[in-house]
Specification:
Elements: H1 3-21, H2 76-92, E1 95-106, H3 109-122, E2 128-133, E3 136-144, H4 147-158, E4 165-172
Antiparallel strand pairs: 1-3, 1-4, 2-3
Keywords: Signal
Protein name: Sporulation related domain-containing protein
Length: about 180
């Protein structure tokens, strides 16, 4: 070996020795004394004086029941008119917004039918809905108010159909 490689090996060895002998680089907790947690101070001068009245109701005293408050305002007619308008407005609502699981969306009617029939096997408790809007066939399952409600069913269907997704939809109110 030449002189230069010997010098490099010696330098590397000295560096390894210095690093190996060095103390720990992570600070260590060295306190062994415990803090004095005893606290004593006289706070009597700051405390309020409270007197307790221990009088009892005797048999001669009469307890008066609460009676309705008599007012000069009569809102019964106005409130009834507001309630009637709310009822009329609610009767005109025929659908509500929610979420459903879209399992298939495409142009192939036969494939949409296969997906719908397969969903009967995967989730027999729910009805898969088959719809057609020119030029696309849709297969949807479930009616949910929130996306969170659809998650368990979505995971179950996702095992078989990786393209399934939760989509917003409108549902009709049946009477």
């Amino acid at each position: 070996m030449n002189k230069q490689s010997t010098y490099i090996f010696a330098l590397i060895g000295a560096m390894l020795l210095a690093v190996g002998c060095a103390g720990p680089s992570v600070p260590q907790k060295t306190t062994t004394t415990k803090a004095d947690l005893n606290y004593s101070d006289d706070l009597k001068k700051y405390r309020p004086e409270v007197t307790v009245n221990t009088t009892q109701v005797t048999a001669t005293e009469k307890v008066i029941d609460n009676e309705p408050l008599q007012t000069s305002f009569d809102l019964k007619d106005e409130l009834q008119a507001v309630i009637d308008t709310m009822v009329v407005r609610n009767d005109t609502i025929r659908e509500y917004s929610g979420y459903t699981i879209l399992v298939y969306s495409g142009n192939n009617e036969i494939e949409a039918g296969r997906v719908r029939n397969r969903l009967f096997d995967i989730v027999p408790e729910l009805e898969a809905k088959f719809s057609y809007k020119l030029p696309t066939y849709f297969v949807k399952v479930g009616e949910f108010f929130q996306q969170v409600e659809a998650q368990p069913l979505y995971r179950k269907i996702r095992e078989h159909y990786s393209t399934a997704s939760i989509v917003p939809d409108k549902f009709s109110i049946e009477e």
